[in-house]
Amino acid sequence: MLQLFYAPLFVTVFANLLYHFASKSVNEKSNLFFSLLIVYGIAWLICLVTFLSGSHKTSLLQEVKYLNWGTVLLGIAIVFVEVGYLWMYRSGWPVNMSAILVTSLLTLALIPIGIFIFKEPFNLKEAMGILFCLLGVYLLQ
User: Fold this and answer.
1) Cα–Cα dist 83/77, whole Å
2) pLDDT score of 123
3) Can you count the helices (H) and strands (E) in the chain?
């Protein structure tokens, strides 16, 4: 059961490694939005095949009914995340610094959202961990 708990973490880390390697490797001469059009076309095909080959307990119509504003907002956010990273890499940001800086700033921005909107706990130990992470980012400069 412990493996199932950590499996999503390892999948996410591995996928992020592929993501940043691929993002840094996209041809700088290509148009950002055309590249993303192809990227999302491939992602769409993978999702479609996976959905159609899966064992569903609900119909496609029911799945459409489950969608809400969060799905739309996620789609918008993903485009800007992709554009942001591609733009950073094309502007000369190193892959090792850009990801850690974005993640650190994102974590700082998510703290009040987690506390005030999602009512998640936040304690001194977590605050110290974030402080050490920020110190690490500072030392990397």
Assistant:
1) 10
2) 93
3) 6, 0
Tens-digit pLDDT profile for residues 65-110? 999 999 999 999 999 999 999 999 999 999 988 888 898 889 889 9
DSSP string of 35-61, one letter each residue: HHHHHHHHHHHHHHHHHHHS--SS-HH
Q: How far apart are CA 93 and CA 81, in angstroms?
A: 15
Q: What is the pTM for the complete model shown?
A: 0.84
> Which residue reads 């009040």 in tokens?
112
| Residues 24-61 as b or e (16 or more Cβ within 10 Å = b) | bebeeeeeeeebbeeeeeeeeeeeeeeeeeeeeeeeee
